[in-house]
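Supplementary Text 2. Reproducibility record for the structural model of the 114-residue chain.

All settings were left at their defaults, and a single model was retained for analysis rather than an ensemble. We include the record here because the model underlies the residue-level annotations in Supplementary Table 4.
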Amino acid sequence: MKLDRNENTDGVGKYAVINLRKLNETCGHAGIFHRWSPEVEQALKTLEDVGALEWGRVGEQDEFFLVKLKDVFAPGALRGYAAMADGVDPEWAAEVREMLPRSGIDSPFCKRPD
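Retained model, structure tokens:
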């Protein structure tokens, strides 16, 4: 198996990320009962309605933990993931390992998680 971004001609993968902190900063306070402006709420609702939005809530089916390559701790996560995948899908593990030279302190964007 290959990473989606390595199979698609546009280089886009399976997921896109919405930075909710930045969304909060951009929208400001939208009122007592609303976290975001009506336009943003509608956009998120549209994505949710078609099943394209996963909130990653604790204990739910699509709970997740996102690690960006610029994260200083990313290499450990990538190595561990690839090691676990090796016995099941060596091609997938190799694709994950290919990200190592761009991760952690080798990323020009390296930073500690915030």
